[in-house]
Amino acid sequence: MAEAAPRAGWPVLASFAGYRWRWIRPDIAAGLAIAAVGLPSAIAYPAIAGLPPETGLYASIAPLLAYAAFGPSRQLVVGPDAATITVLAAALATMPGLAAADRPAVAAMLALIVGGFYIGARLLGLGVLSTFLSRPILVGFFAGISLSIITGQLKRVTGVDVEAEGLIAPFIDFARKAATIHWPSLALAVAMFVLLQATSASRLPIPGPVAVVVVSVVLSALFDFKGHGIAVVGEIPSSIPRLALPAPSGATFDQLLLGAGAIFLVSFAAGIVTARSFGQRGGYPVDANREMIGFGAANFAAGLFSAFPVTASDSRTAINANIGGRSQLASIVAALALLVTVLFLRPALAILPIPALGAILIAAAVSLIDVPALREIWRISRIEFVFAMIALFAPISLGVLNGVVVAIGATFAYLLRKMMYPRDALLGRVAGHEGFYKLHRHPEARPVPGMTIALVQGDLLFFDADHVHARLHAIAEAMPAETRWLVIDASAVTQIDSTGAAMLEEVRADLARRGVRLGLAEVHAEVRALLERAGFLDALGTGMIFDDLDDALRALEAAPIAEETHEQEAEEGQGRGGVGGV
């Protein structure tokens, strides 16, 4: 589904642009499924940071409504995130004077500050950083978080206390403790997984996750699952979110700023990767700057309703996409469903079996591993497939933020290496044809008598200047003895710095000692301006700057050899040291 083109300015209800009434049914179904899947994590995640369980419910209600109002994405769902809550726990741990009773207020204040960071980053246009997340990274990361979701359900669906983290270690730990498998839990999970596949294949009007929740609750009530050792959600707090400005104590201002900064970095990395991953999968564009507004609003709402920092939730977004949610109405329905649950349905959901929820998450994760895309990347570019694998395994092994940094770092290293060794080619003419052709591609092309034409296919900057210098030196060494000019086709040189200008001067001086003149053709305006400031154009001579290669050819044919040699000697004398200090 293609999203509507984003409106300029700050988005308000942008995800509802072009809304169609036929989307109501899938949106409501998706919202109920999001609430069903998000409830257990909403209750469980706060314990990681030593917060009461109701804060997780608050983080799953108010932020969803705020993002629905200000977020640009139709499908993205915000809420508690494992990586973000882990960093929150680390930030709270740096505050030794913080009492347990003060932790909720400090967490809420951190959410407000994180929201401020998002808005500030939006004003500075820092969303451009997300453009460094290439398609292989997105596909690999998407598969990685899917595998992470699957491994995270081992304990839920089997009852085995799996403590290891990562991708392989949990399965090794599981194999060692296989004797403790709770077979009724595993049987229930398998049955619910089969039910999910059956409802998907039969295209029933009731979404699979909702059917699983209803069926498993009924079975739990009839057969007393809890009494048979099957884990259930348990008692749910009955309190509802209350609007209030947090009044933190026990934390200094610098501790709050540093903690919020770390949370912002992790939540942005995790959130924007999730947004771009689902955007790439759904075929719609993602504007990172506009997403910052939505994330900022969500965190402001979390702070004002006594919750904690939130970001995009991959599991909830996966459920939304899997069910077919078409707009942020799904998030609104999910928030209202959780609110109704807190007020009226606590006894029913208290007996909801955990293995059934694990089956829902596994089914959603399996559907999100894009094997055809990985196969296509392997076929097109093996090195990019390596980046996809790095993006797949790094977040699982190193955490979301470190994994993203490693994947982007590998991409940068590869990109920098390619930029350090720009390609070049010699050009010539084909009899009976206009223009110039690469000699290595066109066997019928012949060099221009008296002139060697070198096409440099890259910028001339400090990190590639030595390589280009070496290549031009090699070309000069191989030129025929009758060569009078070496003309560089600079059409592909869009940038140059002082190091590049000094390198060109060295090439010019070396050619002059050989009795060969250096020329430049098709020089971009910015490149020409820098070369002029460097004094290189004065040393080169205005007669050796050409609009195109045809002009260079006509100038060569019109230049008498004797006069050319005299002019070259005069310009050499005037230009000595012209750019020596560059």
TrEMBL record:
Keywords: Membrane, Transmembrane, Transmembrane helix. It is a multi-pass membrane protein. It comes from the Bacteria. It is found in: Membrane. Residues 563-582 are annotated as: Disordered. It holds the Pfam family Sulfate_transp. Residues 441-556 form the STAS domain. PROSITE patterns: STAS (PS50801). InterPro entries: SLC26A/SulP_dom, SLC26A/SulP_fam, STAS_dom, STAS_dom_sf. The chain crosses the membrane at residues 28-49, 82-99, 105-125, 137-154, 181-199, 206-223, 256-279, 291-308, 328-345, 352-373, 385-416. One of its GO terms (biological process) is transmembrane transport. One of its GO terms (cellular component) is membrane. This is SulP family inorganic anion transporter. It comes from Amaricoccus solimangrovi.
